[in-house]
Design brief:
The chain has one domain: Nitrilase/N-carbamoyl-D-aminoacid amidohydrolase, CATH 3.60.110. The chain is built from 5 helices and 15 strands.
């Protein structure tokens, strides 16, 4: 394991997805090679990267897209990670058992070993985001993963709106929080609300970086998916922010892109010394956070 204060580089693969899982896997593997060739050491793919975003509808036939772990994705990506000597975070539709499915991120270390899983904890249920039909909430908590290039926390999409998850992952010592994501506009809302929605999404994750003094990176898909009368326009805008929330890189809202960003953990030390939020937490006063509502 490298010293925790050594620099590391991340790669964020923002891409469009077709209806063909193998085509999406091949594209992702090519993008991983691109990121590695540009110096990325920890490479993160978007949420459910092997398929289009299936939760736009409630359709039991789509459970056939789920896969076991180990399975086809690990069989393809573990030798690639070993060949390129990179860490890969690959989110998949996990078939854990008959009738039991999760929205899961696989973490593969640079030697090709499977380090572990993160199962999405917060499951939305909104128009065109019918995830509760498909996914059981995660049962692994908010773990960290000690990779060859640094200690990382992984959360998935809807998790990004919750400060509790970011805090718990940060308190376990991660250098960076990675958020693979699938989020976009309902086309009918984009003109009136789109800019505000995108700004809120960017702001909440920059706030996690500031509140925890940690690097944060999010990778989103891009493009239109679904029929014209029932579609989502995924807004891309993948980005990385430093421990004070400053943007280090940001992708467009329309194009496939691969971002490669260097992160220096010494920046965490600098920010936390001057903005000591972790020092001043009143852990003796927060027990009420375990309640759903305070009547």
């Amino acid at each position: 394991m490298r010293p925790m204060n050594e620099k590391f580089s991340i790669g964020l693969v923002q891409m469009k997805c077709s209806t063909r899982p193998d085509e999406n896997l091949s594209k992702a593997m090519a993008r991983i090679r691109e990121a590695a060739s540009r110096g990325a050491q920890i490479i993160c793919l978007q949420e459910l990267f092997r398929t289009q975003y299936l939760c736009r509808e409630e359709n039991a036939e789509l459970f056939a897209l789920a896969e076991p772990i180990p399975g086809p994705t690990t069989n393809a990506l573990t030798p690639l990670a070993r060949e390129l000597q990179v860490v890969i975070v690959a989110p998949v539709f996990e078939r854990r058992a008959p009738g039991l499915y999760h929205n899961t991120a696989i973490v593969i270390d640079a030697d090709g070993s499977l380090l572990g899983l993160y199962r999405k904890m917060h499951i939305p249920d909104d128009p065109l985001y019918y995830e509760k039909f498909y996914f059981t909430p995660g049962d692994l908590g908010f773990p960290n993963f000690d990779t060859r290039y640094g200690r990382i926390g992984v959360l998935v999409c809807w998790d990004q709106w919750y400060p509790e998850g970011a805090r718990l992952a940060s308190l376990r010592g991660a250098n960076i929080l990675l958020y693979p994501t699938s989020i976009g506009w309902h086309p009918s809302e984009k003109l009136q609300q789109g800019a505000a929605q995108l700004d809120a999404w960017r702001t909440i994750q920059r706030a996690h970086a500031i509140a925890n003094g940690i690097f944060v990176a999010v990778v989103n898909r891009v493009g239109f998916e679904g029929p014209a009368d029932n579609s989502l326009e995924f807004w891309g805008a993948s980005f990385a922010a430093d421990p004070f929330g400053q943007l280090l890189a940001e992708a467009s809202t329309t194009n496939e892109e691969t971002l490669v960003v260097e992160c220096d953990p010494r920046r965490m030390e600098e920010v936390r010394r001057n903005w000591p939020f972790l020092r001043d937490r009143r852990i003796d006063a927060y027990s009420a956070l375990l309640e759903r509502w305070l009547d």
